[in-house]
Amino acid sequence: MDNLENQSEENQITKQDSSAGRNWYAIHTYAGYENAVVRNLKQRVESLNMKDLIFDVVVPVEKKIKIKGGKRVEESEKIYPGYILVDMIVTDDSWYIVRNTPRVTGFVGAGVNPVPVSEAEMAELTKRMEDDVTKHDVDLQIDEAVIIIDGPFKDTEGKVIEVDEKSGKVKVLVSMFGRETPVELDFLEVKKI
């Protein structure tokens, strides 16, 4: 009996000591299968009772505005397609479970040793994932030539004079009735020439 108690105490000490090795790791997956890998890995952690080594599995996503069927739609977009993040302590067992989950191609790291995601990178990623402000994909610069692709000024060329990323609006200088006139448009209504 004393032997069993000593072993269980040793196991607890080992587990506590190993918590110092707890980190987030980037795992490479087949693109498009990130959510399936997260589901499979969570099921494996549950069924193999590995909750003390693998704590969380996430697909890093952020909110973006896109056009679908001519309408603005808010969607969750993967920050790093083909990658998931796993909060874990790397041991032979935990490494084996993650590595042999279907559609996982491997850990991100040098050679066979996984390299943890730095605390700074993780803080920045967490901020992006938790941000309630929806990002607009505004890839326009001031003085850039654009063509208006929607609305009353459709097919008119102009020059960007102002970009407001928060609201997703751009001001474009267009030539109307022989003079330059600023027009405020949604960034989705213009395209680079």
In which range does the helix fraction lie?
A: 25-40%
Query: Span between N and C termini?
Result: 79 Å
The strands making up the biggest β-sheet line up spatially as: 13-12-11-10-14
Q: Shape from CA axes? A: elongated
CA gyration radius, whole angstroms: 25 Å
Please state the average pLDDT score.
Answer: 83
Assess the beta-strand content as a share of residues: 35-45%
What's the SSE pattern? HEHEEEEHEEEHEEEEEE
What is the number of helical segments per DSSP (H or I, 4+ residues)?
4
Classification by helices and strands? alpha+beta
The total count of strands amounts to 14
Written description of the protein model:
By secondary structure, this protein is α+β, with helices and mostly antiparallel strands. It contains four helices and 14 strands. The strands form four sheets. A five-stranded antiparallel sheet has the order 13-12-11-10-14, with no helix packed on it. The radius of gyration is 25 Å and the shape is elongated. The model is unreliable at 1-19 (pLDDT under 50).
